[in-house]
Amino acid sequence: QVQLVESGGGLVQAGGSLKLSCAASGRTFSTYVMGWYRQSPGKDREFVAHITWTDGATYYADSVKGRFTISRDDAKNTVFLQMDSLKPEDTAIYYCKYTSYGPRVSWGQGTQVTVSS
Fold first, then answer.
1. Which of 17, 31, 82, 112 has the highest Cβ tally under 10 A?
2. Strand pairing of 46-52 and 31-39?
3. Is 83 within 8 Å of 18 (Cβ atoms)?
4. Is 104 helix (H, G, I), strand (E, B) or coil?
């Protein structure tokens, strides 16, 4: 099993920045992809961004392209989400997702991001 611990959420004004972190521990020897999803009240969970562990390729939802940047620290099995130019519509609970070859999927507990207008 893989355990995920997220941090970095909080309250920020529109136009501000936040950086989320997600550290994976446990059986992390076959990491395929790590990424972020988010869920707002009354809405389905949606994809935000992910990064492949083998080559560092990144993918973003159109709604965050150019504003969010996903990165990783291989040695620490950690993925980051730098969020700039935040908008009120970015307000959501952000979840880290870990996918291994197999595949096996693990989710973090979520971290709240609130953007005030």
1. 31
2. antiparallel
3. yes
4. strand
Task: For tokens 């959501």, name the residue.
Answer: 92
66 is written with which tokens?
């150019």
The tens digit of pLDDT for each residue in 10-31 reads 999 999 999 999 999 988 888 8
- 3-state SS of the chain: helix, strand, coil percent to 5? 5, 60, 35
Q: Locate 30 and state its tokens.
A: 């076959």
Residue 104: both structure tokens together: 């096996």
* Contact of 69 with 61, CB cutoff 8 Å: no
pLDDT digits (tens, 9 = 90+) for 74-108: 899 999 999 999 999 999 999 999 999 888 999 99
